[in-house]
Structures are given as C-alpha cells and as structure tokens.
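S1.2 Input.
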Amino acid sequence: MSRNKRHMLSETDFERFRQLVKGASGIFFDRDKIEVLGAGLAERANEVGAGDLDEYYGLVSSRESREELNRLLAHLSVQETQFFRNSPQFDALRQYIIPEIARRKTGGERVMRFWCAGCSTGQEPYSVAMSVLDVLPEPESWNIQILGTDLNEDALAEASRGWYPERKFAGVDRLHLDRYFHAAGGGYTIDESVRNLVRFERLNLVDDPLPVSSFGVCDAVFCRNVIIYFTHETAKIVIEHFYDIMSPGAYLFLGHSETLWRMSSKYALVEIGDAFIYRKPLPLSVGGRRFLPDRRLRSTGPSSGSSDERRSSRADRRSRSGERSDPRVKTGVNKQKPLTDDALSPREAAGSARIQLDRGKYELAIRCLERGLAANGADPELYFVLGLVHEKMNEPEAAAEDFRRALYFDPDLGIARFHLASVFEQNGKIKSAVREYRNAKRSFKENLPGLLEAELEAFDADSLMNLCEWKIENLTGLES
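S1.3 Output.
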C-alpha cells in the first residue's frame, strides 16, 4: 500500500470522526471544515499504514490506541501563536492587573499563579512571565508560577526548549529582545530568568482533571482563541471549570471576539484601558481582610444618563456639523466636497479619531470624524471608526447605524459586517447576528483582507472565517 494513499471522507466517516474528536477534546468541526478534517485524517492514516478510513477509525477509537488518538488530536489542533499577542490585553496585565494582585496580597501569601490553557508552542506563558518581571518590584521575593498546558505534546516540547526562529519575533520590541533573549542559531533562546517561572504540561480541557492539586488556584487564566473550536455546551463546561480554579478577584483572558454571553453569568466583564477582561468577583472580605472596589475598573454596564439624554447628545453632535448624507441616497464613493477650514481629509480624520479613541476621548474622536465627513460624506472608513466609537460608548443602535453606512459605501468591508454582527449578538438579536456573521464569513472568503482587517490585530482572513463559523454554529437555535 502506498504511504501517500488518498483517503476519501464519506458523510458517514465525517460524522463519526467529528463526534470522536469532539468527545475526546471538545474540538468541533462544522460542515465547512470537512476538507480540513479529511486532510488531517488522511495524513495520520497514511502515517500509521491504515488501508482506509474504516480501518483507521477502528484503530484510533480502540482503548489500546489512546496514543494514536492523542497524535490525531494534536495534528488537528491549531498551533499558530506569537509573543504579546493582543497588545491591549498585555498592556492591561502590566499596567493594572499584576500591580493590583500584588497590592491585594501585600502582607499575605506572596504567590502569583497564572495558567495559560491552550498555550501551543509557549509564546503566551513566556509573555506573561516577561510581563511579571517587567513591573513587579522585587520579583525574587515572590513565588511566581506560570503553567502552560496544551493537547499537543510536540508543541509543548518546542515550548520547553525555549528557542524560536527570528520570524517568530514580530511582536517583540527591542527592549524585551535585549533583556530576555539570547541570539542562537538563526533565532533566539529565552533567558533562564523567564524560563524558570514557567512549566509545561499536557492537559485535555475536556477530559483531564483541573490542575488544582498540582498547581493551586490561579490569579489569572488565559484561554484565548480556544473555546471558539468548542461547541457552545462544551465551552460552558470549560468556563465553569475555570471559575472553580480561580481565586476571588482573579481574571479570565479570552480571545478578542470570544464572549461568555449565554455561557456564564458568574463573571464580571470589566474594561481596563482598551481591553475587556472577565473577572471572578472579589468578596467584601477574605480572612478578616476587607476589600474595596477599585475605581479604575470600568464596568461595561449602561452608559450614564438616560436614553433620552444619550439620543439628545447624538442629535446635538450632528447639528454642530450639519446633517450627514443619507446612505440611501447614492452620492458616489469617490465624490468629495471641497475642503473647508474646518474639514479634514478622510485619512487625517480617521487617524486622529483613532488616537482619541485609544485615549478614551470619545467626543473628540467624533468631532474628528465629523470634520472628515464634511470633506467626504461617503468614506466607509470614517463610518466604520464612528461605529467603533459608539461601541465604546455603549450606544449599540448608533454603532449599528454607522456600520450599516460603512457597508453601504463598501459592501465588501467584511470587518464592518463582523462588528455589526457582534453588536446584534451583544444585544440579543440572534437571528440578525447569525445573518451578519454569515455575510462576514462570505466577505472574508471572497475578498482579500483590507486595511481595516488590522482592527482584529493578529487574526488573518482564515482565523476570521473560523470565528464566524463558530459563532454561526453556536448561535443558531439560541433565538430568544
């Protein structure tokens, strides 16, 4: 038999293999991934010399072949990652969370524990370790423990080696590179000061017991871009398990577009800088020590002021610069008004607005965008950024309106469709959310990533399609 035999995946094979993988790991392949699953199965079947997929199923599903099942699961799991991925979250970790944990533990047990679940080749736990060393005064006086777990033993072995090729350092600045890495063989090796804080273990989030007995309760859990591959019910179970291993006041980091909506109401969602992070509530006191709410944490609850006041403020803003063009009236994407003294070019306006948005100065961001719209009332990026501002201001109706305007002028702007779907989802409009996630997926598949795809940072078009597929799979049928 040829080692490179092509095994065809029938409908029966697809269903039983995906149920086997789901039951063993929680990873779920929807029907759009039939080719991905088929290719992975063919590679493993050829590797072990199986004559066909029926023979391979018999092998991998037998109790005696647990090792081959683990190899298959590792082969099918996604392993792409990078240092300091999602920089707003690491900014929040360094600037607020680590100092907050240290203050809370002053005078008590000087232990910090961080768990990176689904750590792949180790860049995430090493990034956490570097962040701790960056900001913690006298780190040697603390017991810092960072655990990285993953299904893939080959990835864990690479993580333990602590050497990475130069191409893996796109997210590392010169300061960290000089401080924590040593050049070696066309790449870099992580310094012992970082490696000594981290240990790696194989762990299946679905089947294996929590590492509480061997590791203890955690001050922060990182599980980013992992639950998107689970079914809704499996993800709920995993999230509940995280809650059990987290200490009071601990933080849960999820991926950029992952949410606990309809999974758990136990966590509080807090805004720290430009990041949204879940937190296990802190009791009023522990062991006789009283805790006060930290005023630098911002809840994502309703904006201050009544809904009438918020509508009035939006009307006032629009009246200051005149009514915007109605997207139902065709004006032409390239039609521009002459620049006035108060107008900005669209590029200048979008750039200035993003700076103000990053600083939390939403009214200034809106003024910049309105000046840009005075020059070109048909620029899709200006409406898109305006939608981001209204999202931050917790004004979903205004955000949805802005994303629709952006799509009117550029129907292929997949990132605007994705954000529109997210607005619908967060406000319980599930049918509309599923529709827009489908539209976004189609747009990402049919069009090259545009400039605005940078809004989701490290995600490429394939990752965005995966997110859309997961949302569609898990939201369908949840209509209230």
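S1.4 Remarks. Residues 307-325+335-475 form a domain with the Serine Threonine Protein Phosphatase 5, Tetratricopeptide repeat fold (CATH 1.25.40.10).
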